[in-house]
Amino acid sequence: xxxxxxxxxxxxxxxxxxxxxxxxxxxxxxxxxxxxxxxxxxxxxxxxxxxxxxxxxxxxxxxxxxxxxxxxxxxxxxxxxxxxxxxxxxxxxxxxxxxxxxxxxxxxxxxxxxxxxxxxxxxxxxxxxxxxxxxxxxxxxxxxxxxxxxxxxxxxxxxxxxxxxxxxxxxxxxxxxxxxxxxxxxxxxxxxxxxxxxxxxxxxxxxxxxxxxxxxxxxxxxxxxxxxxxxxxxxxxxxxxxxxxxxxxxxxxxxxxxxxxxxxxxxxxxxxxxxxxxxxxxxxxxxxxxxxxxxxxxxxxxxxxxxxxxxxxxxxxxxxxxxxxxxxxxxxxxxxxxxxxxxxxxxxxxxxxxxxxxxxxxxxxxxxxxxxxxxxxxxxxxxxxxxxxxxxxxxxxxxxxxxxxxxxxxxxxxxxxxxxxxxxxxxxxxxxxxxxxxxxxxxxxxxxxxxxxxxxxxxxxxxxxxxxxxxxxxxxxxxxxx
Length: 482
Prior knowledge:
Layout: H1 4-13, H2 26-32, H3 37-44, H4 47-56, E1 62-66, E2 69-72, E3 77-80, H5 83-86, H6 95-107, H7 119-131, E4 138-142, H8 145-160, E5 164-168, H9 177-180, H10 186-189, E6 199-202, H11 207-214, E7 219-224, H12 239-249, E8 253-257, E9 281-284, E10 296-300, H13 302-308, H14 326-341, H15 344-359, H16 362-365, E11 369-375, E12 378-383, H17 389-401, H18 405-418, E13 420-421, E14 423-424, E15 431-434, H19 442-460, H20 462-480
Parallel strand pairs: 3-13, 5-6, 5-7, 7-8, 8-9
Antiparallel strand pairs: 1-2, 2-3, 4-10, 9-10, 11-12, 12-15, 14-15
Helix pairs in contact: 3-4, 4-20, 6-14, 7-14, 8-13, 11-12, 15-19, 18-19
């Protein structure tokens, strides 16, 4: 890793004079300054992220993206199973989404009049509600997933007159203060307290715990991801439908956070369709605009909406300056069109089934594979210690010092040797997760499954794999300090 001296050198560079000359056109910037990405990041953005990328050898100069792939400055293509945290459902730079944004700009629409309304946001609401369960009938625009969750908290409290909000352990609902208060990851919450009062966890799948909390009669809402994003944790079969019933019996709202699971990701337009759910609020974002424009939305029941916006002076009691802007709405409408024309929801279901079929046998083949799970193209593999006493002791020793290291013994070779980019699913977790574009094709799924098997086989030879990993990252750490 970088030394303190190296970080001091980076910090000292902040003081260097920066030219105030206009930077030129975008095409000029891209042509003339390509290769400066890491230096600019270290100087002005997040040098700690730069350290991570250099140490793992992920410090590529990315110059393009197409479909399910990223393209580096050498023209090499990498299968992108990270998917920008799942935003590129229809693939990177889909021409239909780009064309829709260009059309809006060419039309010079009366965007965001604020004291007025425009057409495209209304059409988007119409289209989303046509695809959603009948329990929702209105849309509140937003700009991101965390903003949609923040809106859901506010709507739930205003509609019920109650303060408490329940969430599931291990959940991830965002990183702004309100949604962070519903985040089950200690590593995200640490140092940012005190958080929003009245937000309390219950076990994911624990109906008894949920019923006990609801029985107190002061819960505004239970907010839950149909499939938990951090570890791709699937719910017990009857859990979500029963949780919805418990909420309604107790006068609390049932809120589905579909920020990651929605827009075709799980082989249904919304993941809630797998269980026939009818929530009071549904949070959407990420893939909704094809990865082009920040976007979010909350779909709300008519009863909730009318309790919150119940008279003229309350018409603007919640909103967002850029929420519902024409560029985002146009990109979202184009995304919905692509999903339909290319039949991507059904395709995601088929490719997800193929990926599970190819990777489930890894549980029997390798001692270190504890589980393989997924729904549609939301997939994960979980690792655990090997059975041998010596290998297990080494595992426990290394994991105690650097949790999740084994997963890096898989993801790093996948990147360097097979040109596959995927992510470790969270801090202190030995889970690797994949969120590929829904446009991924069968040969690419086969390539990933074969590369994964080869890489796990090498990583399972733990001492030698650890030595190779240490040598690779050690050399890159030395480079990172220069």
